[in-house]
Every structure is written in structure tokens, then in C-alpha cells.
Amino acid sequence: MYTQNNLFFPHRAIAALSCERGEQWQALVARIQGLPPTHEESLALMWMMVRLNGCAGCETDSYRAMRGCAACALQTLRRFKGDDAALLRAYEDALDEVRHFAQRDQRYTTIIEQAEEAQAF
């Protein structure tokens, strides 16, 4: 049976990352867990994980997808060769990209507002 998975790394899977790596990583994950999925920091962590996990190439019938997004992300973090500083730099880079996109494209605000309204229901 298939687990619940998404096209890209979902916000709900962030909680699974909270016990991995070092204190700085854990603090980042704990902070972001409490933020809504549409917050720029949440989007940045999800975007970073999309890149690390290779979510764009994931197929719904692949072993990775059958295990689920959280299990895939945990495996990716455990196999990551860099230190926590490298992970935090990757997160900061992703956050810069999210912020740059939001400033450049005014549709971003509309999309975020619509997503937040949809979650309210």
C-alpha cells in the first residue's frame, strides 16, 4: 500500500526532521514547524529539501515514494556528506530565493493569500 506522499516535499514532513543532525539544525526545524506552510521560512525549508531529496525526479511508483516523503527526507539528511553549517547555508540560500521571488513577482502575495484562505476552511 502507498503512503501519503506529495509532488514535492510537504510541510507536514518537517516534523520528521526534528531529531536529526545537530542543535542548530534542530532549532531551525523546531522554529519552522510552528510556522504556517505559506510562511517564507517554511517555503524555504521545503524548497531546500526538494533540492536535497531530488523530489522533482520522484515517481509515484518508486521505492522512495512508496516509503513516503518523511522517510525519504530522513534518509537524505543521514546521507548528507556536509556538516550542519552546509545545511544551514543551503537553507539561507533557499530563503534568499524565496524572498527574491516574492519581491520580483507580485502574484506571490495573491497565491499566498489564497492558500491561507483555503487552509482556513
Q: Overview of this structure, please?
A:
The chain contains six helices and no strands. The chain is mainly alpha-helical and 121 residues long. α2 packs across α5. The model has no long low-confidence stretch (mean pLDDT 83).
Report the β-strand fraction as a percent range: under 5%
Q: Please estimate the helix content.
A: 55-70%
Shape: globular
Low-confidence stretches: none
Number of extended strands: 0
Ends apart, CA distance between termini: 29 Å
The structural class is mainly alpha
Overall average residue pLDDT: 83
Number of helices: 6
Largest beta-sheet characterization: none
The total number of structural domains is 1
Query: Which H/E pattern describes the elements?
Result: HHHHHH
What is the compact description of this entry?
This protein is mainly α. It is built from 6 helices and no strands.
Name a few traits of the molecule:
single chain; 121 residues; mainly alpha; 63% helix; 0% strand
List the topology elements.
Layout: H1 23-33, H2 40-53, H3 63-67, H4 69-79, H5 84-104, H6 107-120
Helix pairs in contact: 2-5
